Amino acid sequence: MALQAVKKPVVRKAKTKVNKEKSFTFTWEGSDRKGQKVTGQMTAPNQAMAKANLRKQGITPTKVKKKAADLFAPRKKPVTTAEIASFSRMIATMMKAGIPLVQSFEIIGRGHDNPSVQELLLNIKTNIESGTSFAESLRKYPRHFDELFCDLVDAGEQAGALEEMLDRIATYKEKTESLKKKIKKAMTYPISVVVIALVVTAILLIFVVPTFKEVFSNFGADLPAFTLMVIGFSEWMQAWWWAALGVIVGTLYGLKELLFRSEKARDFRDRLLLKLPAIGPILYEAAVARYARTLSTTFAAGVPLVEALDSAAGASGNVVFRNAIHKVKDDVSTGMAMHMSMESVQIFPNMVVQMVGIGEESGSLDAMLSNVAGIYEENVDNAVDNLSALLEPMIMAVLGVLIGGLVIAMYLPIFTMGQVVG
């Protein structure tokens, strides 16, 4: 009989709505329990809370004041997902080394280059010091810590294995961030080169071609059809470049708003991307890798398989896989073996289905899924490298046609006049 779940279900705490308060940095002076003078800095919503937090730590404050803004301090930058992944690894490493959680936040927060990350971590530290659990402190910042992240931390706290869970989370975040970077590399490189080529072409048409046009007007001879076509396009660009730019910007903005507001548009985009040549197979294997990595991490953390599948569906990043995983979740909840359901939806590779089946039978589903994720992450890495190597000559050919065509169009009349004179 196939194994459905071997982990002890995790009882999750009810999620409460919390209000995020703006925090400030305060400098303080005071004396500790031994009567020795101590100073430092801390973040708190107000001065009263800062004093209360100091007293909880056994410090009698004598002076607490808001820190003045530093005109030469580094500018705040948005907190990136890569920085959250890095934080996850650092906090896991420090706790493994025996450093208390609050002190780990203090060390990482004070030493971070990005003031936004520093403020975020020190605010979480303050929340934990005031008695809030680690998971609930993270849930106050849903913009930076998603539901999966918070649930895994919650599971680690309840099971008394927070260090191990943080290590799993760090590995998960690092793998997913690495996968995202590879996908971005595959899609942004050709797009950026083509955009640069179009900009260079527009500059030539608007500023360079008119100079040649003035020279050709003194020839007193008919110009080749190709040259006339380029000159006509140049005249149109000079007169209507603002309209062309407006159409491009308006189209991009309209598509962005459409994708933001319309679920059907996002679903159509997801299905279309999977069908694109070269890019489609990479996105397909990346979705398989995300599914396997998320399911492996959550199931190994003790999350019941049905709930783990729900998390994997949300992390898949594509509507085709999301719908398929929801179908698998429904089948598993009724008692069907997961590998049989995965085979029935006809979206997962046969090798993945077979490996999941072996994992279910042997009771090592999380380890088998981790192996699947490793295989497909490596496949994505190799595919991106191969795609880059393939696109380079193709992009050079496109650039050659665009730029070379303009050069030929401008020099063709000169070559023709040379033949006539000769």
Q: How is the topology of this model organized?
A:
Layout: E1 24-31, E2 37-44, H1 47-56, E3 60-66, H2 81-96, H3 101-111, H4 115-129, H5 134-139, H6 147-159, H7 162-216, H8 225-261, H9 263-275, H10 279-300, H11 305-315, H12 319-333, H13 338-345, H14 350-362, H15 365-421
Antiparallel strand pairs: 1-2, 1-3
Helix pairs in contact: 2-3, 2-7, 3-4, 6-7, 7-8, 7-10, 7-15, 8-9, 8-15, 9-10, 10-11, 10-15, 11-12, 12-13, 13-14, 14-15
Number of strands: 3
What radius of gyration results from the CA coordinates? Answer: 30 Å
- Give the helix level as a range of percent: over 70%
Could you report the average pLDDT, rounded to the nearest whole number? 81
How far the N terminus sits from the C terminus, by CA atoms, comes to 91 Å
The biggest beta sheet reads: 3 strands, antiparallel
- How much β-strand is present in the residues? 5-15%
Could you state the order of secondary-structure elements as H and E? EEHEHHHHHHHHHHHHHH
Question: In terms of structural class, how would the helical and strand content be classed?
Answer: mainly alpha
Strand order within the widest sheet? 2-1-3
Q: State the helix count.
A: 15
Gross morphology is flat
The residue ranges in which pLDDT falls below 50 over 5 or more consecutive positions are 1-20
Question: How would you summarize this macromolecular structure in one to three sentences?
Answer:
The chain is mostly helical and about 425 residues long. The protein has helices at about 45-55, 80-95, 100-110, 115-130, 135-140, 145-160, 160-215, 225-260, 265-275, 280-300, 305-315, 320-335, 340-345, 350-360, 365-420; strands at about 25-30, 35-45, 60-65. A 3-stranded antiparallel beta sheet has the order 2-1-3.
